[in-house]
Amino acid sequence: MASLSRRDDGDSPLPAKAPTFFKIVLDKALRDGRLEIPPAFVMKNEDCLADSVFLKDPTGRVWRIELTRRCGKVWLQKGWSEFAKFYSLNHGYLLVFSHEGGFSHFLVRIFQRNTLEIDYPISSSHDGVPMLCGGIQLPKNEEHGDNVSVKILDSPRPKTRSGGGMHTDEEKTTRLSDRAFSRAVSFKSSNPFLVVKMQPSYIASQLRLSGSFVRRHICARGVCDMNLEISSRRSWPVKCRVGVYRRKQYARVYDGWKAFARENRVKVGDACVFELINKGGTRSATFKVGVYRA
DNA sequence: AAGGTCAGGCAGGCGGCGTT
DNA sequence: AACGCCGCCTGCCTGACCTT
């Protein structure tokens, strides 16, 4: 049983496990239209950085900033100027970036030179739904378009055979994983994606996906090949079996899934976002996977 | 032979939806 | 609004197959 405050990898008991760094904004960053990510952070957390990052301010407003890489250095570039202009960033402002999970999501907090945090602009059309700024603006009702679908797999039902209620630790774990899941469901993309909360059986053996989702976007029946990408530089091939039993659709991921889960330290309660980024053929697809830690 | 993995299947709960 | 049907999803089991 996982402990509430300490993950079994022996990390700090502090809940703020997310990789975090800060940057002081200099005139040069504003003038050049780019902000360098600290090399130490890049070196240690390369997997947190895809080709673009999503910066979310405390109000939930989300910005997509494209990264540029050169000579081992990484900059926030395309979209940075708009970001800086929107928050009226000046020389000496302090930005704190906390990694929130897969897909390069960062919570960003902005402090002025007087040490106080800025008053973040509130959009009247926000309505509590994260907005995506900086190039792509999604409608707030999540209607992404005709060719886009979102499937959410959540809330394991109470066990029917093992019996008994949840223990306290399980309740705590559930609360933590619910936080992870809430973060995951705020993910937005123009690609089809689904959100899955990790169940014990998923980690132990096979991952189950929505049969209808897989049938619609990958293959209707049989075995198909999938690639799961954590970053643009690393991927894991897995197989997915799709079928229908008693008119019920099912899709199970195996043959590589356990290695993926193990190597990426996917735990029970984590929420994973599977974004379909490339439909290779009738029986293959590439998914970008974001892991939101419980 | 033993252990692990994969594939097929079962039982049961939840929720959407149509009907009354 | 209440009820029942049905689709979907889950945990779990079992047997076949593969690897060591």
Automatic annotation (TrEMBL):
Region of interest: Disordered: 152-173
Keyword presence, Nucleus: yes
Chief site of localization: nucleus
Subcellular locations according to the entry: Nucleus
Record bears the keyword Membrane: no
Domain TF-B3: 20-114, 234-294
Any one GO molecular-function label of the UniProt entry: DNA binding
Record's GO cellular component terms: nucleus
Keyword entries, A-Z: DNA-binding, Nucleus, Transcription, Transcription regulation
Pfam families per record: B3
Listed name of the protein: TF-B3 domain-containing protein
Organism of derivation: Malus domestica
Phylogenetic placement of the source organism: Eukaryota, Viridiplantae, Streptophyta, Embryophyta, Tracheophyta
